[in-house]
Amino acid sequence: MVMASPPQSLWDKGVTVHEMKTIRLESCRKIFVPRDYTFGLNVHFETQFPMAFRGKISEATWENTIQTINSIFADAEKICFASVLETVLGCATCYCSRLVSDTIYQKKMKKLNGFLNQENLQTYNPAGFHILSPMERGLRTIEIWILSDQSSDIATSNSNHSEA
């Protein structure tokens, strides 16, 4: 972990600055949301609410996030005229057409990454979590990093227990 201190000039002017802590992401605790194979081989993730979110993220927010992820994958894997035409064009051009334009699947994955970035910035990062794209883990699982360190979690859990 790396600690960043505010410039001394701000301290001299009486400005209160909180120290920022950089957390090494490899050492973060993680939550894994596995794939749900009851839908066959189509990419679909379990919708069960992770217990680590309790009190930090609402169940409705999580449900919206996971359903949006699942719907983007369902839309990406859907067989339609455009995807058939894209495949035929790829075969006819020895897949050189893929150098010129993205596939429908690639466009949907960019949409997924944009959605996850937005959700992370607006909802999950402020609550101390970060959702990785399922593509990072080979579509087997959604990995969620817990961005807070254990000492702040203990302090938070102690204050939560004392309020109850």
From TrEMBL:
Chief subcellular location: endoplasmic reticulum
Domain of life: Eukaryota
Assigned GO CC terms: endoplasmic reticulum membrane; palmitoyltransferase complex
Domain Golgin subfamily A member 7/ERF4: 31-143
Keywords, ordered alphabetically: Endoplasmic reticulum, Membrane
Leader sequence segment: none
Biological process according to GO: protein targeting to membrane
Keyword Calcium: no
Topology within the bilayer: Peripheral membrane protein
Subcellular localization: Endoplasmic reticulum membrane
Entry-linked InterPro entries: Golgin_A_7/ERF4, Ras_palmitoyltransferase
UniProt-listed Pfam families: Erf4 (PF10256)
Family: Belongs to the ERF4 family.
Quaternary structure note: Interacts with ERF2.
Protein name (database record): Ras modification protein ERF4
